[in-house]
Amino acid sequence: MSMFQIFNVSGSAISAQQQRLNVVASNLANADAVAGPDGKAYKARHIHFQTVPMGGQASAGVKVQNITESDTPNRRVFEPNHPSADAQGYVTHSNVNPVEEMVNMISASRSYQNNVEVMNTAKSLMLKTLQMGQ
To answer: Coiled-coil annotation: which residues (predicted)?
Structure first.
């Protein structure tokens, strides 16, 4: 693997973590959402990554394989006076777990930071290699 491919690997990981942070932000923004006019509440989304091996036409790294909706049932809370309550008096809330999403956000930001550090270290090593010839 050439030194320049390190930038491709880290760059793809940074891009994937950025998408992960966007999904987490969307989940957190809708954590307290109730069912909309269509009667369906927001469902948490999860991102799935896929490794891209070296060789072939694509460079090595990671990519987003897909984004899926959580199959966890939505929370139903008994609030008979709420305007969105159904005939039994229950309001359907999103199935987002804010604690889990915060942990996911911290993990994604740490991964992002680590990949930036990998790129900085690779750049530093390349500069030192160039300076050896002087």
So the answer is: none
